[in-house]
Amino acid sequence: MKRNRPTAVLSVCSFVISNALLAQLEPTAIAPMMDYREAHAMVPLGSGMLVIGGFDGGATTAACEWYDPEMDDWTSVASLPEPRQDATAHSVAEGVFVIGGWDGGATNFDDILRYDAELDEWTAVATMGQGRSGHASVVTPEGIFICGGYNGSIDLAECDVFDVNSYEVTPMPAMGVARSSFAMMQFDHAGTPLTLVAGGFNPGAGFQLAACEVFDGAAWVPAADLPWGVDNLAGAVMGGGSVPVVTGGRVFNGVANLFEGMDQGAVYDAGSDAWVAFDLAGPHSYHGMAVGPDSRIWISGGANETGNGVSTTFSFAEQGQLEAASVVQPFASAMEPGECAGRFRAAVATDGDWVVVTGGDAAMVGTGYRVAWGGPSAVSAPINPSDLSVFPNPCVGRAVLVGADASEPWQVFDRNGRLVLEGRGPGVDLAPLTNGWYTVRVAGGRKAAVILQK
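The structure corresponding to this sequence follows.
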């Protein structure tokens, strides 16, 4: 977990934004936090955002603060009982729960803390079976499901569920593969809630992992591997909670002796147990990702190159959307808002109306920004099998046809109605084509519009 703070190299954001959504998607700088932080947690609380602990550029910190978007300022609140970074946090059941984390030294915490906003007070309410940092957790119908991580000696396969009402911790079946720094997603498939874990880090299993597993409430089942082994990736669920997606992550370049960010992602199809790869505009690792009410995804940026003795190069933020044919609009030229550039291990959170990104800035000031999602669109409901949508849209090359099965033929037509590409299955690669607006058609007359913007 420990690393040396590298010398920063700043780059700027680059976005491709719909004319119809231009005003809503423009990032707006917010007041800097009272303290610089990275590897901190952030959750919605009341009408604002609570940031928790992290690394302040010199040491792990216990300090916490709350952002008031109406006043655009930060207020100091009660500190954690002890400094911690790399914890997870959830705002649920009228409280904020912080799980595990690392003190920057020898301790990986096994406790679960609750913040009471009325009393401005932190209380330890439960103990897990293992101390852990670099773990993942999601909110499920049974409580907060906590898996994996690093206990100071080994990567973990153990999992717990924490009941947010009784504060009981119940051991759950262990994953088949121990992992830290992985993606964990709670999604619905055919009316069944499932938990998916993807990738991660485990030196005993090959360092960066491609292995994935699905938990059905009773047992873990191996799932299709990612197209690549990767850790420090980001995961989210779009399509009304039914379509898991991962982006970026860290892979090792042995020739250059450094870690590189991935400029690819993948969408998981639970029906066929398959991942379909897509291309991103830039590489990302140590980044965050949030989903808006209209299946728009915001990727916070993160790092391109990292490593001991390596000057970190930062990645720009980008966004993509799961689009239906009736939603896509012609896209404007790229913008470069500087607020989004140069963020490493920043915190990302959404309250459903805004996505907020804080910290991890190259100047180590603690700056941040927010973006309005805008109103829900036609794809805010769960994706039906009869639907055909494209992600990401716009795309820079490969995209995913959500709703197309593995054997389904498709055809791509340009704006003049000419057939320009054809293939089969849920993956479509528009890279050979020139930038523009295209229509993808599959059997039964289903179609979706897609913008290629390389």
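The mean pLDDT is 89.
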